[in-house]
């Protein structure tokens, strides 16, 4: 019987002489090849791991198992929604801001204050959950992940988001998994929707807080502002910026000042600089319907994620605080909290004179300093410190949230 040639030594076949390097005669030790050193160290991902992480293509057989993962069916009690009403008079709030700065009258005439004029019921768990799912990724990636997350609990949904399904999910009556269902789902199953391990843990922790009663709609409504911060920041994945956005857009609290939001900081700089510098006047344009802009090509080496599925770029400290490092625009930093749909101011034009002398700038601030900070010379990573923001908006109390809403419009003004 002929001997079969083999690439490895064996009891019957010997070794393939062509595959064995010839011994060195110079006495120098032969250098190991790349395959000999690296290949034994490389962990080959199994089909199961690729299916769970979503990072590699999944075989047809394995893909079927991912789509049919078992999830809890018991939704628990029906959710309690935040009612579509305000806890204050919107007209009184407008009059207060106009009395503090007459330019607000032009703003109110031109721009709808969506959080306080377009009221709808809100489910806190759903809002906070989608906020976590959308952290630090593009709006398209967030939409895809939210769709896949909900589809875990409603397999009859289309495999990919459609225009109809996206519109339906915006309704407060649309299906969304309950805290009990999510809390009973293991991390590996949540990751099949495209969540990173850390983000899956965040969502699971949030669901556990609502499921065991540590959080509820009633407790959120009854808490004052400081109690609200304490309650929500105890949850992994939720930082102060997210709490501020939730308080403004979902709970519709009137006196919230998001000191970590760069958009608000930039808007305040421009708003007050215009009072002391003729080179920086402000006026707003009437609101126009906005459509999502197509992502621009990455020119200057900047990568723009448009179809990201697995998002490992979560903050390592366990909270998001996106506004402190992002653009400051809630619509840009996708959180799926009802965004401030406000127009981009097309041009900074001259403003009419105030009915009273402009307020003095806080100690330590000047026209030159505000200009330098707008040009990029930040202080401790911010355009304004929390104390400076507090002093600049002191006359807006107790309706700071309304003024803050319009600062995003001023922040995006073209120069």
TrEMBL record:
<dbReference type="InterPro" id="IPR011257">
    <property type="entry name" value="DNA_glycosylase"/>
</dbReference>
<dbReference type="InterPro" id="IPR003265">
    <property type="entry name" value="HhH-GPD_domain"/>
</dbReference>
<feature type="compositionally biased region" description="Acidic residues">
    <location>
        <begin position="309"/>
        <end position="320"/>
    </location>
</feature>
<keyword id="KW-0227">DNA damage</keyword>
<dbReference type="InterPro" id="IPR051912">
    <property type="entry name" value="Alkylbase_DNA_Glycosylase/TA"/>
</dbReference>
<feature type="domain" description="HhH-GPD">
    <location>
        <begin position="133"/>
        <end position="309"/>
    </location>
</feature>
<feature type="region of interest" description="Disordered">
    <location>
        <begin position="284"/>
        <end position="337"/>
    </location>
</feature>
<dbReference type="GO" id="GO:0043916">
    <property type="term" value="F:DNA-7-methylguanine glycosylase activity"/>
</dbReference>
<comment type="similarity">
    <text>Belongs to the alkylbase DNA glycosidase AlkA family.</text>
</comment>
<feature type="region of interest" description="Disordered">
    <location>
        <begin position="1"/>
        <end position="63"/>
    </location>
</feature>
<dbReference type="GO" id="GO:0008725">
    <property type="term" value="F:DNA-3-methyladenine glycosylase activity"/>
</dbReference>
<dbReference type="Pfam" id="PF00730">
    <property type="entry name" value="HhH-GPD"/>
</dbReference>
<dbReference type="GO" id="GO:0032993">
    <property type="term" value="C:protein-DNA complex"/>
</dbReference>
<dbReference type="GO" id="GO:0006307">
    <property type="term" value="P:DNA alkylation repair"/>
</dbReference>
<dbReference type="GO" id="GO:0006285">
    <property type="term" value="P:base-excision repair, AP site formation"/>
</dbReference>
<protein>
    <submittedName>
        <fullName>DNA glycosylase</fullName>
    </submittedName>
</protein>
<feature type="compositionally biased region" description="Basic residues">
    <location>
        <begin position="291"/>
        <end position="303"/>
    </location>
</feature>
<keyword id="KW-0234">DNA repair</keyword>
<dbReference type="GO" id="GO:0032131">
    <property type="term" value="F:alkylated DNA binding"/>
</dbReference>
<dbReference type="GO" id="GO:0005634">
    <property type="term" value="C:nucleus"/>
</dbReference>
């Amino acid at each position: 019987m002929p001997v079969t040639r083999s690439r490895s030594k064996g009891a019957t076949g010997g070794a393939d002489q062509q595959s064995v390097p010839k011994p060195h005669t110079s006495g120098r030790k032969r250098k190991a090849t790349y395959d000999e050193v690296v290949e034994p160290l490389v962990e080959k991902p199994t089909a199961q791991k690729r299916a769970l992480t979503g990072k590699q293509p999944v075989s047809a057989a394995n893909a079927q198992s991912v789509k049919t993962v078992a999830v809890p069916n018991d939704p628990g009690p029906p959710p309690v929604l935040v009612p579509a009403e305000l806890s204050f008079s919107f007209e009184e709030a407008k009059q207060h801001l106009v009395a503090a700065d007459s330019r607000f009258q032009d703003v109110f005439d031109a721009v709808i204050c969506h959080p306080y004029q377009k009221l709808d019921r809100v489910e806190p768990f759903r809002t906070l959950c989608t906020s976590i799912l959308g952290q630090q990724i593009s709006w398209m990636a967030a939409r895809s992940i939210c769709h896949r997350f909900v589809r875990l609990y409603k397999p009859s949904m289309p495999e990919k988001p459609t225009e109809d399904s996206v519109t339906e999910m915006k309704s407060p009556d649309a299906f969304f998994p309950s805290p009990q269902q999510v809390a009973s789902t293991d991390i590996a199953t949540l990751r099949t929707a495209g969540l990173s391990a850390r983000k899956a843990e965040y969502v699971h922790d949030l669901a556990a807080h609502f499921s065991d009663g540590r959080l509820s709609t009633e407790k959120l409504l009854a808490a004052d502002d400081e109690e609200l911060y304490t309650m929500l920041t105890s949850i992994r994945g939720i930082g102060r910026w997210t709490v501020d956005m939730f308080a403004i857009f979902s709970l519709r609290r009137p006196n919230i000042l998001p000191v970590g939001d760069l958009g608000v900081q930039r808007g305040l700089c421009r708003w007050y600089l215009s009072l002391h510098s003729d080179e920086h006047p402000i006026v707003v344009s009437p609101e126009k319907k906005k459509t999502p802009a197509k992502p621009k090509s990455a020119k200057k080496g900047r990568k723009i994620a448009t179809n990201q599925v697995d998002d490992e770029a979560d903050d390592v400290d366990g909270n998001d605080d996106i506004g402190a490092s992002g653009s400051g625009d809630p619509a840009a930093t996708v959180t799926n909290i009802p965004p401030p749909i406000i127009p981009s101011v097309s041009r900074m034009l001259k403003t009419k004179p105030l009915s009273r002398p402009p307020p003095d700038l806080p100690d330590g601030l000047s026209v030159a300093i505000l200009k330098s900070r707008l040009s990029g010379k930040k202080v401790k990573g911010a355009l304004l410190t929390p104390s400076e923001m507090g002093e600049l908006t002191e006359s807006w109390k107790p309706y700071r949230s309304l003024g803050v809403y319009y600062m995003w419009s001023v922040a995006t003004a073209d120069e």
